[in-house]
Design a protein that fits this description.
136 residues, alpha/beta, three-stranded parallel beta sheet, 3 strands, 12% strand
Length: 136
């Protein structure tokens, strides 16, 4: 509901004297195809511009989160270009909003696991080992 009710949320936050508004910027909304160099959704950027500007206009500092867990279907965690795709999304977002957003949070698992690893409880094989898929 944040997508539709953010103005009411921000007004309430400001009325309570809470100085910050934290929200995530959706990778799949901004870069729907997920691939480096693929088209950017201008309507998504405009939406987040409005969220950020409305927060600032109401005396609330925006805190933005970018997360790898919101990856597009075309960029699975084990894709060879996952890091490049995440970097493309991150650069688009940070370039657009860093002039108004002083705090950024990234949520990146230190050790992503493949669906075939022991991290998947439905896997019954005892022969596989946990292995990190991505090391940054």
């Amino acid at each position: 509901m944040q997508y539709f009710l953010y103005k009411q949320d921000i007004i309430r936050i400001a009325a309570l004297g809470i100085p910050y508004y934290s929200f995530s910027i959706s990778w799949t909304r901004v870069v729907p195809f997920g691939q480096p160099g693929s088209p950017i959704n201008q309507q998504a950027l405009d939406h987040y511009d409005d969220v950020i500007n409305f927060a600032i206009a109401n005396g609330v500092t925006p805190i933005c989160t970018i997360t790898h867990a919101d990856n597009p279907v075309s960029v699975p965690f084990d894709a060879d270009n996952f890091v490049d795709a995440f970097l493309y999304y991150s650069k688009v977002v940070l370039t657009r909003y860093s002039d108004r957003v002083p705090y950024w949070v990234t949520i990146v698992s230190l050790a992503l696991r493949s669906p075939s690893s022991d991290a998947n409880p439905s896997r019954t094989s005892q022969t596989s080992t946990l292995r990190p898929m991505l090391v940054i």
